[in-house]
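sry for the spam today, last one i promise. struct tokens for design, 449 residues
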């Protein structure tokens, strides 16, 4: 590749995915702002403490204390096994709340003395209180895992949480990107989340509730998705057949879907969902613990990217958004394209509703409130032009993550919720302003030519 071609490719990349740099800067900023002392948990905490105890006599009495949470129980078991393998003879493990630990200590003979109390950093204050009240451990030294300086923002659990939380918005944003590329808008997606969630939860209840079978849950989710897709198709029909402006048509569907969600649920959340149903929303693959909702999101983005860049349908979508009349004159079925994008947007909103139902293990008519604004923001921030004809699927994914990172970073730095809304509003305004300036620049170049 020649130097000139490389510059062209680089310029095109930054034109399409320039917001990737903004995302990188935001990650650096919140990493600096959330730099804290981090204490390991689980196996890592057990290994850290075991290294401190290597020099002690194998006859030393060691008491391992922890809460009964998953991570703390894992820590206690792991440390107990490590110390046993190292030859320590007097090791006791006690887990539970402070009252349970005190009760368990009372059962232990007063003749048994503990020189070391090994515990997690979060449980150390409780261990200190128990130490002062127990004869067996009154002279014990409390040992916790060594801390290290690391940004809270960059913790693996936090990054997975960011990706999982944005999955619902990002999934809908795929369909919204297609709609906005055609110079349209869909305001009904937030209400379709609620409708899909309520319908899915209700159908699961009809399929057996907490005893519903796998296929019963699949069919219930499919019912929510298909109903939302029907709403999207109806919006597309109103826009193409009766020439109702997209803003009005989807605004009407937003009200209808929201009202129907309340009618079906009688205004209250729908529960009685099997524990296995949460696998999609809360489950994760075992190796890297990546949430299944995030995997689904990535797969959908890959499919959408291929559709928009490698198929005739994708080219037609861009053509309709660039110049609808020119697209019609060139033989493109404009009505079919518009009907397609609004139907897809409805289907993806329904799928997002199923994911949210899985995450929250219930369906409620209040789900998806104001989500249409966040979805549109993700699309616009990702570089899709509100004028139509321009936008990239992966750009939308970047935009979704920018919004997620801003929200998560502000939460970690204790920024008030109303201040977050101000910041998000300014981000959206800035993205639209950049788009306008870009459009004006392109217009001036065309005039000079």
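last one done:
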């Amino acid at each position: 590749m020649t130097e000139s071609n490389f510059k062209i490719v680089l310029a095109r990349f930054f034109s399409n995915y320039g917001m990737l740099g903004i995302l990188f800067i935001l990650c650096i900023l919140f990493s600096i702002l959330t730099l804290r002392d981090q204490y390991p948990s689980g196996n890592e905490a057990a290994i850290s403490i075991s290294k401190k105890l290597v020099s002690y006599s194998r006859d030393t009495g060691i008491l391992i204390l922890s809460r009964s949470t998953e991570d703390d129980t894992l820590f206690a078991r792991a440390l107990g096994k490590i110390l046993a393998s190292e030859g320590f003879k007097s090791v006791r493990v006690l887990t539970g709340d402070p009252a349970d630990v005190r009760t368990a200590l009372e059962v232990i003979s007063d003749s048994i003395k503990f020189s070391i109390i090994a515990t997690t950093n979060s449980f150390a204050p409780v261990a200190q209180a128990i130490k002062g009240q127990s004869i067996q451990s009154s002279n014990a030294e409390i040992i916790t895992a060594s801390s290290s300086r690391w940004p809270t923002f960059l913790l693996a659990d936090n990054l997975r949480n960011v990706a999982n939380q944005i999955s619902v918005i990002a999934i809908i944003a795929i369909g919204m990107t297609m709609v906005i590329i055609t110079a349209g808008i869909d305001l009904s997606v937030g209400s379709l989340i609620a409708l899909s969630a309520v319908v899915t939860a209700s159908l699961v209840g009809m399929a057996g509730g907490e005893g519903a079978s796998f296929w019963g849950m699949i069919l219930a989710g499919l019912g929510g998705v298909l109903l939302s897709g029907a709403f999207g198709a109806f919006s597309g029909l109103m826009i193409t057949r009766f020439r109702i402006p997209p803003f009005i048509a989807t605004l009407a569907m937003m009200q209808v879907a929201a009202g129907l969600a309340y009618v079906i649920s009688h205004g209250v959340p729908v529960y009685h969902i099997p524990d296995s149903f949460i696998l999609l929303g809360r489950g994760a693959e075992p190796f890297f613990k990546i949430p299944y909702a995030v995997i689904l999101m990535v797969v959908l983005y890959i499919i959408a990217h291929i559709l928009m860049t490698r198929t005739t349908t994708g080219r037609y979508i861009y053509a309709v958004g660039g110049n609808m009349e020119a697209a019609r004159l060139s033989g493109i079925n404009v009505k079919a394209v518009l009907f397609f994008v609004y139907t897809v947007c409805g289907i993806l909103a329904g799928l997002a509703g199923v994911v949210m139902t899985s995450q929250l293990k219930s369906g409620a008519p209040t789900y998806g409130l104001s989500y249409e604004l966040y979805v549109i923001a993700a699309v616009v921030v990702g570089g899709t032009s509100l004028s139509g004809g321009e936008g990239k699927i992966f750009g939308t994914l970047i935009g979704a993550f920018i919004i997620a990172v801003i929200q998560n970073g502000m939460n970690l730095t204790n920024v008030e919720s109303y201040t977050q809304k101000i910041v998000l509003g300014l981000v959206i305004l800035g993205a639209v302003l950049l788009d306008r300036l870009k459009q004006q620049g392109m217009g001036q170049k065309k005039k000079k030519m």
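The beta strands are 35-38, 61-66, 90-95, 116-119, 141-143, 148-151. ok im logging off now
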